[in-house]
Amino acid sequence: MPVPHPERRKRARLLGAVVAALGLALFPVVKYGNVFPDTGKPMAFGRPLAGHPRTAFRTASTLADGTRIGVTTLHGKKSGFTGKVWAWAPPEYYQERYRDSAFPVLIALPGGRGYPANYWNRPRLGLQQAVTDLAALGRSKPFVLVMPQLNPDPRHYYDGSDIPGRPKIGTWLSDDVPDLVRATFRTFTSRDGWALMGSSSGGFVGLKMALQHPDRFRAVLASGPDIRPDSPLWRGHEKERRANDPERLAAHLSARAGAPPLHLQFQIGTEERGRANLERFIRRYAKGPVTAALHVIQGGGHNAKGYVRGMREASLEAIGKVLRGPAPESRPDRTYTAGPPAGARPGDRGPGRRHRP
After folding, report:
1. Alpha-carbon distance 25 to 190, whole Å?
2. Confidence tier at 54 by pLDDT (50, 70, 90)
3. Contact by Cβ (8 Å): 325, 134
4. How many C-alpha atoms does 141 have within 13 Å on its Cβ side?
5. Are 209 and 169 in contact (CB under 8 A)?
6. What is the average pLDDT value for the chain, to the nearest integer?
7. Residue 308 buriedness (CB in 10 A; 0-12 / 13-18 / 19+)
8. Is the pLDDT confidence value at 76 over 90?
9. What is the DSSP string of 166-223?
């Protein structure tokens, strides 16, 4: 799945505007068909907490192991923004022995336009299978994956931020989306069960958001990320732009006594540029409460397929080590009973893991 190189973002914006004007839908519709596949089947990941209305997810796709990716439209109460959110729970989430356990959450952000879809919801990229396989091997955690829309339109990048006079995408991603997740899944209330990941511009947003909210997130996995806010919409709002600059945020956090620990896991392919910038970032800011590591993907380019390979090699395991995982037959921070996947028999302990990409 091609993801624009950071240095090509301005050209990508212009191309996106032309594409939109012509009514074309090149990314990722051509490769995968309907960007909002809907089988017409409603689905639920479990009963919401008392006081939370049930969120209406519908099936977007079904994986080979029987788990399903759901999609819903989220009307953000705090941001006022409305956008799509996809979600997937791993096989363990439906198993009887984990029925009362909380699960860690990984919010996955795309590169490219990030509108109207999030390409991490495409099973053929292998992200869901990588989570399943590594959890089965005991090398990582069985993450709940949450895949929100990144931008409100195809014309601009909003840098995952509340740019003055624009849709509050920063608040939507940092507040409204996690609120939806907490109301839908069995999650940890502490930051030790929450992480972000993203590639290219999505990697920038994940990195920036983790540095802005270390009280909410324990780690971030950023693949081929930008490290500076460069949306043209910042023009005339320099103060706000600086407040969303990962380097400034990292400098402040790394020097802050008593700040909660935050792990930054970077990935970069040998066939893409930007490695020197990431190595410099790590040298400067991996100190105090901030730890950081860089996984180099041999032969990898600036694309999602290569980044999933890097996740399998090292990076999912790295962030899994700093996050809490589910405990069988335990009590979570908040409890309710999850329903099994569609078609499961009473007492079914959940789908197996024999399928490989």
Report:
1. 40
2. low
3. no
4. 22
5. no
6. 83
7. buried
8. yes
9. S--HHHIIIIIHHHHHHHHS-B-SSGGGEEEEEETHHHHHHHHHHHH-TTT-SEEEEE
Which helix H or strand E contains 252, and what residues bound it?
Answer: helix 246-254
> pLDDT digit string (tens) for 329-353?
755 454 333 333 333 332 332 222 2
Give residue 148's pLDDT.
98
Sort residue 114 into left (φ over 0), alpha (ψ -120 to 50) or beta.
left
Residue 23, CA distances (Å) to 16, 20, 38, 120, 154 in order: 10, 5, 22, 23, 11
Residue 276 has pLDDT above 90, yes or no: yes
CB atoms within 10 A of CB 151: 25
Render pLDDT for 171-188 as a digit per residue (tens, 0 to 9). Answer: 999 999 999 999 999 999
Q: Which pLDDT tens digit goes with each residue over 138-177?
A: 999 999 999 999 999 999 999 999 999 999 999 999 999 9
Among 9-18, 32-41, 185-194, top mean pLDDT goes to: 185-194
- CA distance from start to end of the chain: 16
Contact between residue 103 and residue 190 where contact means Cβ atoms under 8 Å apart: no
H or E segment to which residue 285 belongs: helix 275-285
Map residue 322 onto helix, strand or coil. coil
Residue type, 32: Y
Residue the block writes with tokens 């109301």: 183
Tokens 């994940």 — which residue? 206
Single pTM value for the model: 0.82
Which residues make beta-bridge pairs with 105? Answer: 144, 194
Is 98 within 8 Å of 194 (Cβ atoms)?
no
User: Taking a C-beta distance cutoff of 8 angstroms, is the pair 53, 179 a contact?
Assistant: no
